[in-house]
Amino acid sequence: MSKTIVLGCDHAGYLIKDCVIDHIKAKGYNVIEVGTYSADSCHYPIFAHRACKKLQDGEADIGILICGTGIGMSMAANKHKGIRAACCSDTFSARLTRQHNNANVLCFGERVIGKGLALELVDAFLDTEFEGGKHATRIGMVADIENGTFEE
Ligand code: RB5
């Protein structure tokens, strides 16, 4: 069964959203959109929260969040339990954050990168698997920090 991607953006990510959606649909993914649906000014945490809820509820497997820089979206997303959001503007990071961090949300900024690079980031992120092993141990430590159970 094909994986489902939840995609959210604010007004500063709105112009790039449709080409990202077309691209991921063409790659065979299902897409759930959680807004925003216009270029009117809005608040990015709303859309980060909607997307993260879909991931936490198991309705989606991967998230893509777009704002002006990608930073606000990643900050908001990372406040959600079980969410590992990475703000990327280079393909090396987009690939490595899957391999090493098992990131489940890719964030980027429409005001930072162009459409061509955005689609390359999406490809690098979606086409890369988590390596597990020692990286799984480290992700477990991050989860312990999140849960307040971390001990050195
Ligand atoms: C909106 O102006 C902008 O602040 C937002 O899209 C994002 O870049 C925040 O991190």
Overview of the molecule:
The protein has 152 residues and is of the alpha/beta class. It has one domain (4-147): Sugar-phosphate isomerase, RpiB/LacA/LacB (Ribose 5-phosphate Isomerase B, Chain: A). Helices cover 45% and strands 16% of the residues. It has 6 helices and 5 strands, in the order E-H-E-H-E-H-E-H-E-H-H. It has helices at 14-26, 44-56, 71-77, 91-99, 115-126, 134-147; strands spanning 4-9, 30-33, 62-67, 85-87, 105-109. It has a 5-stranded parallel β-sheet with strand order 2-1-3-5-4, with helices on both faces. Strand 1, helix 1 (14-26) and strand 2 (30-33) form a beta-alpha-beta unit. Helix 2 (44-56) packs across helix 3 (71-77) and helix 4 (91-99) packs parallel to helix 5. The model has no long low-confidence stretch (mean pLDDT 98). The structure holds D-ribose.
List keywords for this structure.
alpha/beta; Ribose 5-phosphate Isomerase B, Chain: A; 152 residues; 6 helices; single chain; 5 strands; binds D-ribose
Q: What's the arrangement of secondary structure elements?
A:
Blueprint: E1 4-9, H1 14-26, E2 30-33, H2 44-56, E3 62-67, H3 71-77, E4 85-87, H4 91-99, E5 105-109, H5 115-126, H6 134-147
Helix pairs in contact: 1-5, 2-3, 4-5
Residues 10, 12, 44, 67-69, 71-72, 109 line the site of D-ribose (RB5).
Summarize the structure.
The protein is α/β, with parallel strands linked by helices. The chain has helices at 14-26, 44-56, 71-77, 91-99, 115-126, 134-147; strands spanning 4-9, 30-33, 62-67, 85-87, 105-109.
